[in-house]
């Protein structure tokens, strides 16, 4: 699966843990593997955002690192667009470089080195 970072901004309420829990559960129900959840803190928004008939000036920022199928992006964007606690959401795809497996130490043929030196 490709790796994604999922960034979202939500209202600051006592139900913060509930918003995070249902978001992570929705990701996992759709086949995502959540690798990391990072709280980026509460901040003033760069501009006023109107969402769900309210104007917002502050919000909580979270970043979730996950691996999942590409189809998860559209379904989660739609799902969180209907969540009244989520103000803004975005997915960012990471290009993960594949690591090569170590084949071990290649033994050196000392006889060939000695023959090469004699010539």
TrEMBL record:
GO MF: small ribosomal subunit rRNA binding; structural constituent of ribosome
Keyword field contains Hydrolase: no
Annotated InterPro entries: Ribosomal_bS6, Ribosomal_bS6_sf, Transl_elong_EF1B/ribsomal_bS6
Signal peptide region: 1-18
Keyword Transmembrane belongs to the record: no
Gene Ontology cellular component annotations, sorted alphabetically: mitochondrial small ribosomal subunit
Keywords: Signal
CDD domains associated with the record: bS6_mito
Biological-process GO terms, alphabetical: translation
Pfam family, one: Ribosomal_S6
Annotated Gene3D superfamilies: 3.30.70.60
Family to which this protein belongs: Belongs to the bacterial ribosomal protein bS6 family.
Name of the protein in question: Small ribosomal subunit protein bS6m
Organism annotation: Chunga burmeisteri (Black-legged seriema)
């Amino acid at each position: 699966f490709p790796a994604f970072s999922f960034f979202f901004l939500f209202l600051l309420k006592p139900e913060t843990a509930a918003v995070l829990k249902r978001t992570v559960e929705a990701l996992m129900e759709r086949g995502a593997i959540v690798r990391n959840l990072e709280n980026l803190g509460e901040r003033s928004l760069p501009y006023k955002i109107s969402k769900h008939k309210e104007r917002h000036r502050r919000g909580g920022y979270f970043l979730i690192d996950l691996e999942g199928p590409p189809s998860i992006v559209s379904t989660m964007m739609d799902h969180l667009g209907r969540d009244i606690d989520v103000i803004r959401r975005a997915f960012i795809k990471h290009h993960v470089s594949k690591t090569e497996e170590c084949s071990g130490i290649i033994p050196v043929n000392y006889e060939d080195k000695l023959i090469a030196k004699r010539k």
